[in-house]
Design a protein that fits this description.
9 helices, Rossmann fold, 304 residues, 12% strand, alpha/beta
Length: 304
């Protein structure tokens, strides 16, 4: 079955697009008729993936924590593809484990990439969108941004910040022709969940599931998207249930252990790639982290 086209051949810039959710989204949007700029700190992989997509796709380098780099990424995307219609702030990292075992440097890195990277993207994209009187900013958060995730304290905090930033921007720029969407995936089968124990009853989603949700929201904007949809009602009901019942439910589905009962050795490659320090007691199992890192695209929870 042919992919339903999005009218207008829109220009979309995506961060963290060399792999995972970002890449799946770039492929889905390109198939729907959009022109896509794949941005990633791993510029060689971004270019390779863009070349595989063909005409209407370009791979570019971007360091999301550096505003000048983000601004240049969007300028290069517009030069190659035309004025920007949609920015998808998707780059992010997810180191997990007991909070007190996490180094201060790792916590700072999570907040810089997941939160500052998102804010940099909005600051870089908004002036042009406001001038044109149209535009759509999509931020990848996580179910973890609305639900407690033991073992993912810094990650959950960063995603809660993204949820709040997206909603606040929506209100601040209301009536200006812009749309803001927060995408909140649950456990997604990317590198981010390598070595995690998962949860009972709620199946992991695939990057393509999240990509399909993004395509739908580009076609018909709305403020919030939860993947899978079944968790939308759960997130809305949690505040009404009270903490005791919510915590009991999370325990029954093992959401309270998903980021604590982990195989850190299995995660060593991911930790190395994102440039974070493994939790204490696992350092012997993990290779030394490099000085330069690759921006992983963000996802998950257990909630991600």
């Amino acid at each position: 079955m042919a992919t339903k086209q999005i009218p207008g051949s829109r220009v979309v810039a995506i961060t963290g697009a060399a792999r995972g959710i970002g890449l799946a989204t770039a492929k889905a949007l390109h198939a729907a008729g959009c022109r896509v700029a794949l941005g990633d700190i791993d510029v060689d992989e971004a270019r390779r993936q863009a070349q595989a997509l063909g005409e209407g796709a370009v791979g570019l380098g971007v360091d999301v924590v550096d505003f000048a780099s983000f601004d240049a990424f969007l300028a290069d995307a517009e030069q190659a593809l035309g004025p920007l219609d949609v920015l998808h702030n998707n780059a992010g990292i997810m180191p997990i484990g007991p909070f007190l075992d996490e180094s201060p440097e790792t916590a700072e890195r999570v907040l810089r990439i997941n939160v500052l990277g998102c804010l940099n993207g909005m600051k870089a994209a908004l002036p042009g969108m406001l001038e044109r009187g149209r535009g759509h900013i999509i931020n990848t958060a996580s179910v973890a941004g609305k639900s407690p995730v033991p073992g993912g304290l810094s990650y959950a905090a960063s995603k809660a910040a993204v949820v709040s930033a997206t909603e606040t921007a929506r209100v601040e720029y209301a009536g200006r022709g812009l749309h803001f969407t927060c995408v909140m995936p649950s456990f997604t089968n990317t590198d981010l969940v390598t070595g995690t124990s998962g949860t009972r009853f709620v199946k992991n989603v695939e990057p393509e599931d999240v990509a399909a949700a993004v395509v739908d929201v580009v076609r018909q904007p709305r403020p919030d998207v939860v993947v899978p949809k079944i968790l939308t009602g759960v997130l809305r009901a949690q505040p009404l249930l009270g903490r005791r019942l919510r915590d009991t439910m999370n325990h029954l589905i093992k959401a309270d252990r998903a980021f604590l009962d982990i195989d850190q050795q299995a995660r060593a490659g991911y930790e190395q790639r994102i440039g974070t320090t493994p939790p204490k007691g696992q350092l012997d199992a993990a290779p030394e982290a490099p000085a330069e890192v690759v921006d992983a695209d963000e996802v998950v929870d257990a909630r991600r």
